Amino acid sequence: MLFEPIIDGILTNGYGMTDNFLAPGDVTALAGRLRERRAAGQFRAAGIGNQQVTVENTIRGDEILWLEEATATPEETAFLLRIGEFVQYVNRTCYLGLRDYEFHYALYPPGTFYKRHLDQFRSDSRRKLSVICYLNTDWQESDGGQLAIYLPDSDETSEQQITVSPVGGRLVCFESGRLEHEVLPATRERLSVTGWLKTG
Ligand SMILES: O=C(O)CCC(=O)C(=O)O
Ligand SMILES: [Fe+2]
Q1: Does the predicted interface ipTM exceed a cut of 0.85?
Q2: 147 lines ligand 1 (CB under 6 A)
Q3: How far is residue 167 from each of residues 44, 121, 133, measured CA to CA in Å?
Q4: Largest CA-CA distance found in the chain, in angstroms, rounded
Q5: CATH of 4-199 among 3.40.50.150, 3.40.50.11260, 1.10.287.40, 2.60.120.620
Q6: What is the pTM of this model?
Q7: What is the CB-side half-sphere exposure of residue 110 using CA atoms within 13 A?
Q8: Which ligand 1 atom is at minimum distance from the Cα of 62?
């Protein structure tokens, strides 16, 4: 079962991953749609903080576009349906009480990054799981752009850093309120769909 290793990973290591969340054809279809929407001027510089209005390139340099069911294209609808299946699986196995999700496209121009942060806002604990799905074809380790996740050791006094390359079709998931992480700069454009599975 495709979703099982993701949840197993979260329970054993704090983060979960699968390399086949999307098939190569779905990756190119979504990446194409992302580029088309960006060319149409629909993307905005991502903000920071609760209202996401402050643009601060020294913290994050990506451009984003939120996915909306009402205006979704067939490949976007297919992606959101797959996420819906994942949510159902998580609710059957983990009792997190997930009820909602939100996703945005993200594009990091070469050299941009997202400094170490936690995804859960102080005033909003509804974000339970962070989910990132990469849309990059032929990504090489030397292209950079890794996601670095900081895993606290069990005594909480030290930590371990693991890195994940943004390989197309790969999905990474972790608890939004628990794990700090960062996006390292890449030498080429780095594409993804990022979102949060939320309680009510
Ligand atoms: O793209 C990634 O690997 C992580 C993105 C991220 O941390 C975020 O958007 O909050
Ligand atoms: Fe994040």
Answers
A1: yes
A2: yes
A3: 24, 28, 9
A4: 50
A5: 2.60.120.620
A6: 0.95
A7: 3
A8: 9
